């Protein structure tokens, strides 16, 4: 019963004390080991987040790839990259929370528990030293009492021996008697001292084993249980830190799923058509050239002119024939400012975008001018705020910039008007007397080496400046852009019928006059240039503005010509 309360005898208590010291030290080492584990996990999360961000940044669209955003699948991929950035941010949050909520707390707690453990074991060692000192004192008193008792016995025996010897003088006997009495007194004093030390030791030993040591062990036990509890809380926090970000990560993944579901293949396919249609028309068939006779070539099916160049043989002998549009090679040099290297439709888009950018720059400059003008007015009214003349140089610079930008915008608008004049768009029938007709009846423009001046009415294309077409109307200039013979052209099959909604004179070459309400045959559908090819009889056919007629295509013809709206780009 006593041993259960005491925890064993002294030697056993001492062994337990040392074992507890080792065990608590191992517990602190385990806390530090777990702290290091969480720290390494935090570093892994940071590195993972950094790699995810670098990956997202690596595949972000470059400035030259910004046009890809018109496709839904490209936008979906770019949205996925943005979601990955948010995803990486959540892993950075994991590392941050682990550092603040686990690593910092455990490091602080480890220092506290080390200090507390050191104090407890210091008290235990001090108590042990006190008991050991009391025990040594008891042993010393015991040995002294034993020694004094032996000395008293020897002195008593010596006295008795002398007292029995008749030859010994009385003085010697008295001296031996006094010596024996002194030794007995010393033994008695040692006995009392030994008794006192024994009583003191027993009291201290009882207090040590029943009070001091149990209290110290209880404190160490409480410290150990608190350490274990903190370990459990840290493990729970370790899981909660991950669980807290799961909803946000789920939203990131849901966002990726949503953008994936928003991909529209048909819309992207339409964008391809819109982006790469060139405005060129397919060339006609190439005839077999019999070198035993004069070379003859038929004109393209889509030719607007039936004239034939009188000096065709001379130009052919010089090797300056035109290149058909599917085989046009891309210019490897620097692109011209007017985008004349592009097909008509793409050129129109580029010019419009350039004009929009210039207009934005003009608006910025005008906003700065207005702000500086107001500042100057304030300076005029309040000279102490600043010198009004100091603003003049900047206003002059802005005015020069605006003038320069307006001139540049006017230049691009001229090119755009030229493109739109050659590519009539569908609009109000009352406005169908478009710029094209005005320019055709006017003086031919000067050759400016643009792509439209190199596009012949039959859809062919040339990179030779000497064979550029300057006008569609004047027969003498149209001859220089025509190398196909209309006389040998095979008759095209009809693909439907049409009804004339408005009268059209057809004064230009390649066109045909119609009267309102007239029914005609359609032999070639509008390719996006605003013109439809029709036939009245076997001898009369030509082009009319698409908006002037109501077309009724045969069902089979619709399927055949549905993809002919896709015009190849120059890279094709």
TrEMBL record:
All copies of the F-BAR domain together span 4-268
Region feature (Disordered): 300-347, 438-486
Q: Which residues form the SH3 domain?
A: 493-554
Q: Enumerate the SUPFAM superfamilies for this protein.
A: BAR/IMD domain-like (SSF103657), SH3-domain (SSF50044)
Annotated ranges, domain REM-1:
341-418
Pfam family for this entry, one: HR1_TOCA
Source domain of life is: Eukaryota
Where mainly found? membrane
The record's annotation in Gene3D superfamilies points to: 6.10.140.470, Arfaptin homology (AH) domain/BAR domain, SH3 Domains
Subcellular localization is given as: Cell membrane; Cytoplasm, Cell cortex; Cytoplasm, Cytoskeleton
Write the record's keywords in alphabetical order, separated by commas.
Cell membrane, Coiled coil, Cytoplasm, Cytoskeleton, Endocytosis, Lipid-binding, Membrane, SH3 domain
GO biological processes = endocytosis; signal transduction
Give the Gene Ontology MF terms in alphabetical order: lipid binding
Which family does the similarity line name?
Belongs to the FNBP1 family.
Q: What is this protein called?
A: Formin-binding protein 1-like
Gene symbol?
A: LOC107675683
